[in-house]
Amino acid sequence: MRTLVKWTIIVLSVIWIISLLIKDYQQIGWIITQSSLFFILISILVGTVSLAHNALIFYLLINNKQATGIAIPTTCALYFNSQIIRHLPGRIWGVVYQLTHAAMEQTSKASIIRANIEHSLLSLTSSGLFFFLFIYFRSAPNIVVVSILSYYAAAYFLWTSKSPATLASSFLRKLKLRRVSEQITFEPLTPTTATGILLANFSSWLFYIVAWYYLLGSYIDFNINQSTLVLASYSGAWVVGFLSLITPSGIGIRESSFIFFSSGLDSPERIVFFAIIARIWLIIIDLNLVFISFLWANYYARKTTTV
Question: How far is 180 from 113, CA to CA, in rounded Å?
Fold first, then answer.
C-alpha cells in the first residue's frame, strides 16, 4: 500500500510539471531560438551540482549522532523525489512522501520532520541574507563579507549549542502540540556535522551564483552587477513564494515577487520572460536530479542485495 501511495504521488507530480511546461510551450520555443544553448547547458550542469548539495545537507541532518542511518544514495532519491512532489498543490505532499518512505528505511518520522524544519530554516535565512546584502550593500564588500562570516558563525553556535535546541522543543510545547513535541526533540549537532552542513550550504551558493550568471548570459547582455541584482531579486522572491503556502512551489507568488523586486533592471517584458525561464530552468534541474538519484539508488540497492 505504501509503495502504491508513493508512486501515485510521484506520477501526479510529473503530470503536473509537464502540464506547466506545455502551457508555456510558445515561450520555450522562443527561448530555444534566441538563446545560447551552450550557456544554458552549462547553467543546468552547474545548477545541478549546486542543488545536489541540498541532499547532502539533508543526509547530515537525518543521520546526526546516528551510528547507522539512511544511505546517501537512498537519501538523495528520497529528497529529490519529494522536491518534485512539492510542485503539487498543497505544499505538504513532499513531506508526506518522505514520512511514508521513512518507515521502509527504518528511520524515525521525527528525524525526517526535524530535518525538514532545520533545512527549511537554513534555506530561508541564507536566501534572505543574500537578497538583503546584495540589494542594499553590494557596493560595500566589507559589509558583505563580515555579514556572511557572522551568519555562518551564528548558525554554527546555534546548531552545536544545547540551549537553542531546548528552546525549539519548548516552543513546540508552548504551541500545545503535545504529540508533536513529545516525538520531535531538537538535539545539538555534532561539530563535524554542523561544519559539513554549513560548508555544503556555502559551496552550494557559489555554484548557484555561477549557474545563474551562465543562465543570464545565455540571452541577456547583463553585466555582473545587473546579474547579481537579478539573482538577489529571485532569492528574495523564492523566500516570499516559500512562505506563501498557498500555491505549489510558490507558483505565481514567486514570479510576481520577482517582477516587483526586479522592476527597473530591464524592460517589464524581459523581466516577465526571465521569470518564466527561471521557473522552467529550476524544474529541469529538479527532474535531472530525480533521474540521477533514481539511477544511483537503484544501483546501490542492487549492489547491497548481492553482497
Answer: 10
Does 185 map to a domain?
A: no
Nearest to 245 by CA among 79, 111, 99, 124: 124
Residue 160 lies in a domain: no
Q: pLDDT tens across 69-78, in order? A: 678 888 888 8
Residue 150: inside a domain:
no
Q: Is 266 helix (H, G, I), strand (E, B) or coil?
A: strand
CA torsion angle 98 99 103 108 (round to 10): 110
Read off the pTM.
Answer: 0.81
Indicate the number of domains in the chain: 1
Q: Which domain holds residue 122?
A: 2-137+195-306
C-alpha cell at 121: 530554516
Residue 74 lies in a domain: yes
For 6-63, write each residue's pLDDT tens digit.
Answer: 556 556 655 655 665 566 566 556 655 667 778 889 999 999 999 999 999 999 988 8
Q: Which SS3 state, helix, strand or coil, does residue 265 take?
A: coil
